[in-house]
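Notebook, bench 3.
Goal today: get a predicted structure for non-specific serine/threonine protein kinase from Ascaris suum so we can plan the truncation constructs. The sequence was checked against the plasmid map this morning, with no discrepancies at the termini. Length recorded as 646 residues. Pasting the sequence as submitted so the record is complete.
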Amino acid sequence: MKVLKKATLKVRDRMRTKMERNILAQIHHPFIVRLHYAFQTEGKLYLILDFLRGGDLFTRLSKEVMFTEEDVKFYLAELALALDHLHSLGIVYRDLKPENILLDSDGHINVTDFGLSKESIDSDQKTYSFCGTVEYMAPEVVNRRGHSTAADWWSLGVLMYEMLTGNLPFHGQNRKETMTLILKAKLSMPQFLSVHAQGLLRALFKRNPANRLGAGPDGMTQIKNHPFFATIDWLRLLARQIDPPFKPTLTAPDETHYFDPEFTRKTPRDSPALPPSATAHELFRGFSFVAPSILEEGRERHRGPLANPARMHIPEARPSSIHDEYELKEDLGVGTYSVCKRCIHKVTRAEYAVKIIAKSKRDPSEEVDVLLRYSHHANIVKLFAVYEDEVSVYLVEELCRGGELLSRIIAQRHFSEREAAAVMLKLANAVSYLHANQVVHRDLKPSNVMYASAKADADSIRIIDFGFAKQLRAENGLLMTPCYTAQFVAPEVLKKQGYDMSCDVWSLGVLLYTMLSGEAPFATGANDTPSQILERVGEGRFSLCGPMWANVSELAKDIVKRMLHVDPSKRLPAKQILVHPWIVQRNSLPAANLHYSTDPAKIKGAIEQTYKAIGCAANPVPLCPVNASALARRRRQHRPKSASGL
């Protein structure tokens, strides 16, 4: 348990603590420490983490002086997988050292302490903070010229050198001398190391981060292919199927033998905390967290209509009535299961949106769970409070003043590729975050993507309405519930197959198609019938030709094709969208506006008519056999069959 006193935290430390909590809440990886709970009292913050009884790597290294190359290879490989996972989420770790690497009871590593980590760093972006432990800092961190995820690979090299030799590669008499050595000194390479070990060290110790092994979108592939790791089976390693070189001998669940006596000899005390500052409560709003695995224990909530709505209870709901604290105003939107109204807090006069869900129509437990866990993400609508009465559940959320994304775009009738890429970056980042936590939205239609700010800037993009969201629990990761909205649905859903996260990517692809062309890919007019639309969806038939695509770059067309691929196994994963060249090179994309030729009313009309038709249909529209599709005929081949039971 990590306990922090709010009053003793400096402003910088407060931000780092909030950052650490946010990072730990979104990560689930076999070689990264897990956060189980986060909560706070009036004066303190608490983080409940895995109890890793094998101690830290520093303690083991200090006892053995140095490790064998086989030992080092194992630890480095697990660390590389952990770092790659962080980098895929846009996180730079920045504090890799033996003290921050713990061993579990089986001997596998767990990276811990994310207080110095940095979020939202893309492969082409840099951060300029000077932080970390100086001996492990990369040259670009030391000279403060800006660093990216490549800095972590330098630190991995320092750790490798230390484990192999028992010494640090760059270590002066003082801090300044150490920094000078990092920037200028020639690496002293011990000759007792193997050729492959020396080669890996030299590749990691490139002072130009662009040339460093691990840098760039294919960096992890290059590391895996390095001869030093030739004997590593990476899939088995990730599955924890390879035995660690050292397994702690443990005799009791609370064994602390492998921890440094400097810590274990101290008496744990929960001393009183000083009163926090007036702003501390606001800063740590939303700090509380419960791991999804804990919430799921012993319960599987029903999502359909309830036989007795009055007996339903949302544990997270506040005991008071919403009418005691808020004034409910005009409708903002009306859906099948809910209505959204503007509301005003009676004390602060702050404006919010309240989603009112009828208990008789749907159990909102899953939606509440998802928002409580994940609405702290910058591009997911914020949930502030939950209320309930006998007939309804009330979700108080942030008010999205900028309106729907697509409505604003087609109303202004022009949009640039650069703007579209900025929007897609935010959406893909949010969806990648959800998918990393095994959550699928399942209803990413245009009306569920809004601007929080009236200025309609990309940073204020919000994904809303998690009424159809699902937290994946099946071992194969697939959902079986047929749930879809009009043309923003993947082909395998229409065919009653199980579907997974690629459905959300498909929906983002439809949205991107419309942003770039001003047209919907599968509903081309107000007179299209539902069967025509669904047939096009099922065959993956859409066009990237015509006047509206003449000024669109080939990179943009490539990412659209990858996101709308009819085969979900070949569809671009959300995290890969973030490293696609069209996103990475977005600042160099054309800034000229793409003028839409289609009447905005016709675009919306075609989409809305399709939604209505599908919503009213009692049965899904029958589809042609796969081998009769235009795509199959053109390729002269059948699509692969799904295995039974999927």
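Residues 296-307, 474-490, 492-498, 613-646 have pLDDT under 50 and may be disordered. DSSP finds 24 helices and 18 strands in the chain.
Flagging this for group meeting.
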